[in-house]
């Protein structure tokens, strides 16, 4: 029986074709990845901010209209307390608007404090479009408005989730009585690979570098985070606490997700806040 073999010339041609096909596949994959990354960069804000426009009912206290430094009009709720020992400036997360925080702001007021909660630009009744610098300006406008009502040492900045970004920026640039960071990330570039694995961190333009800023915030600080947080990993809360300058305190929750700490463990949550706020009453 005669054996058959492929001529050397055909083997070479076949090998070249395989290499060419592999190179072409890699080139297509590379181009596809580049196009995808560019698309993500263009729509970066759409991956960070999820505002609900309108749909905000009557204020549980007073409606407030603020003007940021760049002229953007910001809407907020102010809930005064007759025997307030401090004032909480609440900066909410990346989704929804004030209406979703109605119960929260009323419960915060029940701790014996005034509460100012704002909707960032592009959220609720606030005009404009959200962005990192814009949120910083919105938080500063709220702080400046509060200075017409109280003193800086009585202002407690409360940043929840994304709100930890403008909260850290504000607390690192102005005087305040305390800072509360709840379910907050170290930075947006640190979060990016967890949300979009193909996105290189160095290409993320939005920073919200809380890890760097928390090192130089001098006021009292309270860190709150759940071990079961499915959105912002618990280890980010630990890293923020470890990096923070003294004085600092922390409370870690279990059996709670990112958005339901106040609902699933209200007694632990509000009693912890009450204890943290107690020195303001002395």
Number of helices: 10
- Average pLDDT over all residues: 88
Beta-strand content estimate: 15-25%
Question: Rough shape?
Answer: globular
The helix/strand order is: HHEEEEEHEHEHEHHEHEHH
Characterize the main sheet: 8 strands, mixed
Essential attributes:
globular; two-stranded parallel ribbon; 282 residues; single chain; 8-stranded mixed beta sheet; 39% helix; 10 helices
What is the topology?
Layout: H1 8-42, H2 44-48, E1 50-51, E2 62-67, E3 73-79, E4 87-91, E5 95-96, H3 102-109, E6 114-118, H4 132-146, E7 155-160, H5 164-171, E8 178-182, H6 188-195, H7 210-213, E9 220-226, H8 234-243, E10 248-253, H9 261-264, H10 266-277
Parallel strand pairs: 1-5, 4-6, 4-7, 7-8, 8-9, 9-10
Antiparallel strand pairs: 2-3, 3-6
Overview of this protein structure:
The chain is 39% helix and 18% strand. It has 282 residues and is an alpha/beta fold. α8 (234-243) links the parallel β9 (220-226) and β10. α4 (132-146) packs across α5. Mean pLDDT is 88; it is low at 28-39.
What's this model, at a glance?
The chain is 39% helix and 18% strand.
């Amino acid at each position: 029986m005669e054996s058959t073999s492929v001529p050397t010339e055909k083997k070479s041609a076949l090998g070249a074709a395989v290499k060419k096909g592999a190179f072409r596949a890699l080139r297509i994959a590379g181009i596809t990845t580049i196009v995808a990354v560019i698309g993500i960069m263009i729509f970066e804000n759409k991956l960070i901010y999820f505002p609900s426009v309108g749909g905000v009912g009557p204020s549980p206290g007073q409606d407030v209209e603020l003007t940021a430094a760049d002229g953007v009009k910001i809407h907020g709720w102010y809930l005064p307390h007759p025997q307030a020992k401090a004032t909480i400036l609440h900066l909410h997360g990346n989704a929804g608007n004030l209406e979703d925080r109605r119960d929260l702001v009323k419960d915060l007021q029940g701790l014996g404090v005034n509460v100012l909660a704002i909707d960032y630009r592009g959220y609720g009744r606030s005009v404009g479009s959200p962005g990192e610098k814009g949120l910083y300006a919105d938080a500063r406008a709220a702080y400046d408005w509060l200075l017409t009502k109280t003193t800086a040492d009585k202002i407690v900045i409360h940043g929840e989730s994304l709100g930890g970004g403008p909260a850290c920026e504000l607390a690192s640039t102005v005087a305040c009585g305390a800072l509360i960071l709840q379910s907050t990330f170290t930075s947006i570039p640190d979060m990016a690979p967890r949300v979009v694995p193909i996105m290189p961190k160095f290409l993320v333009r939005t920073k919200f570098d809380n890890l760097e800023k928390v090192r130089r915030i001098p006021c009292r600080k309270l860190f709150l985070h759940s071990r079961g947080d499915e959105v912002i990993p618990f280890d980010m809360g630990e890293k923020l606490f470890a990096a923070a300058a003294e004085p600092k305190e922390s409370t870690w929750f279990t059996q709670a997700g990112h958005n339901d700490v106040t609902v699933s463990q209200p007694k632990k949550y509000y009693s912890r806040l009450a204890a943290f706020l107690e020195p303001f009453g002395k």
